[in-house]
């Protein structure tokens, strides 16, 4: 996590924590008690706080659990004006930020899009995708990919894989509705094929996006991958042996340590927003509208022509907070990829994007230690 934060220039140290249990076996009341007790233990050991450690949602958690953490911290730190900056991924009504829920998936798409800007890095790739995993990251990745013109031909979950090669591929909203109603993607009426869960890796596609759990591409499965490019949306989906085999087969990998950093980037935005106690864009919004109107009025005077009300409205409308978040995320992901690519060109011995990404991270960490020193 330290390396991931360094790659995308987020000033967090990068720790992780969690509880090893299956939340599906517990009631909401029990989950709340577990979450609040966990938070209390973190507080007791000084492992949580706006300037100490700032948790965020991951596997099995979401805005609800983050709200419980924030409320527990606030209750045990009365009067702290920055208390709600102790955790990110909160509901928007509780100090969260619009765009956090789909941030990891959106970051995957933005990183993949930036990578594909350099076709010489990934020759032969097109616009069909296969996605192992249809949780938060997998769903948002698939949904945003389709809305940007990609075709998702297969999605794999813990209980099976569905394949739709014809037409525009899998309808993501339809599949989500089916899973919500039936608790599974199995039996999806539009599926042309239903395969075992692990078969997702063998589906022929241009880009394979592992978006679920770790170690799915290993020494036994890497030889079966039929994609031209692997884009790691999950944490650690490829083992070192699997990575080596993919490299020998000429299948490039956009690494997780960069590609799924969208979540922590927008968590950083939420944290900064909580510390400022002000919505992004609030101070400048009306000023920008007035300046734009003045510019349009001057253009109308000079040209002798009037804009239609619809055109003026489109030009004057300012970005909302989510649009600002998406813009900032795109800037972070784009700049980070460019730095990784520059390192790969500068140091040919890096070979892979993964190695280049770690070089970028380690260079930044080394520079930090050199400039700040170590004390005591």
The low-pLDDT segments are: none
Helix share bin = 40-55%
- Termini gap: 25 Å
- Tell me the total number of β-strands: 7
Q: Roughly what is the average pLDDT, rounded to an integer?
A: 90
Active site: 16 (proton donor)
Binding site for NAD(+): 104, 136
GO molecular function: glutamate dehydrogenase (NAD+) activity; nucleotide binding
Catalytic activity: L-glutamate + NADP(+) + H2O = 2-oxoglutarate + NH4(+) + NADPH + H(+); L-glutamate + NAD(+) + H2O = 2-oxoglutarate + NH4(+) + NADH + H(+)
Description:
The structure is a single chain. By secondary structure, this protein is α/β, with parallel strands linked by helices. The chain folds into four domains: 2-94, Leucine Dehydrogenase, chain A, domain 1 (Rossmann fold, 3-Layer(aba) Sandwich), CATH 3.40.50.10860; 123-251, NAD(P)-binding Rossmann-like Domain (Rossmann fold, 3-Layer(aba) Sandwich), CATH 3.40.50; 282-317; 324-372, no CATH class. 47% of the residues lie in helices and 8% in strands. It is built from 13 helices and seven strands. Strands 4-3-2-1-5-6-7 form a seven-stranded mixed β-sheet. Strand 2 (151-157) and strand 3 (160-163) form a beta hairpin. Helix 2 (28-44) packs across helix 3. The longest helix is centred in the last third of the chain and has 26 residues, at 321-346. It is globular and about 65 Å long. 39% of the residues are buried. The mean pLDDT is 90. One of its GO terms (cellular component) is mitochondrion. NAD(+) binds at residues 104, 136. The active site is at 16 (proton donor).
